[in-house]
C-alpha cells in the first residue's frame, strides 16, 4: 500500500531584536527559511530583517495549516510571544544549524 505523505508547516520568524513577527505557511520549511535568510523576495521579511525561525508547527493537510496560520495572524502579539516562550524560551534560531 502506498501512502501519500504530506507535510506543511506554519512558522514564525522574527528579527534580531524580536520586535517584528512574520507568520507564514509552507510545504518546504528548509527552503522557505533559506529564502528569508537570503532576502530572496523583496517584501516584509526582507525589509524588517525577519529571518530568525523561532517557532513552527507541522501539519499533514494544507487546509489545517492555512487555518492555523490565519488563527496566529489574527491573534495578538502577546499570544505569539506566549506561544514562542512556551516552546522556545531562549528564543533560539531553530534553523541555526540547517545551513552549515
TrEMBL record:
It comes from Mucilaginibacter yixingensis. SUPFAM superfamilies: GIY-YIG endonuclease. InterPro entries: GIY-YIG_endonuc, GIY-YIG_endonuc_sf, UPF0213_domain. This is Putative endonuclease. One of its GO terms (molecular function) is endonuclease activity. PANTHER family: BSL5627 PROTEIN, UPF0213 PROTEIN YHBQ. Keywords: Endonuclease, Hydrolase, Nuclease. It comes from the Bacteria. Belongs to the UPF0213 family. Residues 6-83 form the GIY-YIG domain.
Amino acid at each position: 500500500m502506498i501512502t501519500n505523505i504530506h507535510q506543511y508547516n506554519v512558522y514564525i520568524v522574527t528579527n534580531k531584536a524580536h520586535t517584528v513577527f512574520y507568520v507564514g505557511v509552507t510545504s518546504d520549511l528548509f527552503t522557505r527559511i533559506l529564502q528569508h535568510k537570503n532576502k530572496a523576495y523583496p517584501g516584509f521579511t526582507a525589509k524588517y530583517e525577519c529571518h530568525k525561525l523561532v517557532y513552527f508547527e507541522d501539519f499533514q493537510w494544507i487546509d489545517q495549516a492555512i487555518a492555523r496560520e490565519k488563527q496566529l495572524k489574527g491573534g495578538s502579539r502577546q499570544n505569539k510571544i506566549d506561544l514562542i516562550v512556551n516552546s522556545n524560551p531562549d528564543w533560539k534560531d531553530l534553523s541555526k544549524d540547517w545551513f552549515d
